[in-house]
TrEMBL record, chains A, B:
Keywords: Isomerase
Organism for this UniProt entry: Dethiosulfatarculus sandiegensis
Domain spans labelled Cupin type-2: 38-92
Organism classification: Bacteria, Pseudomonadati, Thermodesulfobacteriota, Desulfarculia, Desulfarculales
Tagged with keyword Isomerase: yes
Any GO MF annotation of the entry: isomerase activity
InterPro entries, alphabetized: Cupin_2, PKS_Associated_Protein, RmlC-like_jellyroll, RmlC_Cupin_sf
Organism superkingdom: Bacteria
Protein name: Mannose-6-phosphate isomerase
Keyword Mitochondrion: no
Amino acid sequence: MLRKINLTEKFSLINETWSPKIAGQVNDCHVKLAKIKGEFVWHSHESQDEMFLVVSGEMELQTRDRSLILTSGEFVIVPKGVEHRPVALEETCIMLFEPLETVNTGDVEDSHTQKDLEWI
Amino acid sequence: MLRKINLTEKFSLINETWSPKIAGQVNDCHVKLAKIKGEFVWHSHESQDEMFLVVSGEMELQTRDRSLILTSGEFVIVPKGVEHRPVALEETCIMLFEPLETVNTGDVEDSHTQKDLEWI
């Protein structure tokens, strides 16, 4: 029941970008791992905050009025309702922390939308 | 409102061991940062899972029937109700993820118990 998750090992199993996998559950939140590259779709989550921790690479977290550059060992929490878009120029590994019901594209449904995520 | 947290920077501000600080809130969970060294007290959290991510150093997570060694970039989720004890031979930096109401020593009250944690 108690399992150790090695982030480097898990990321090596992920081949696609923008396809988050579930690496753990803490109460009613999922820990997700994703590789990202390029621009994601603008979206917001009506009632869920979302945490992005950069494990390797560099991510730009854009909101409509500002932008933050995050590198390895940095995180940001996007409050519920705030429209945002992650962008990565190079392949970047991120850990996400968000409620079980969070869908990656929030209020938007497009080609990036992923439901019923796999565990890794 | 949107702030970037750099883990190295935040850990450099922590001088005591076993004194977790709050670095963020994601919905009803806190992201906490702590430096640990030595043996903590055996305890459990009746209704809260707890996530430990090692950022630097090495932590042994003991339960009554097994033990896991975690180094940088590794995490474990201790399910609610499981008695556990973190141990670190050298000073180790960890990130914790747990519900707002979680107290570090769970069902035990001793000299390690910390309530009303500071934000960092």
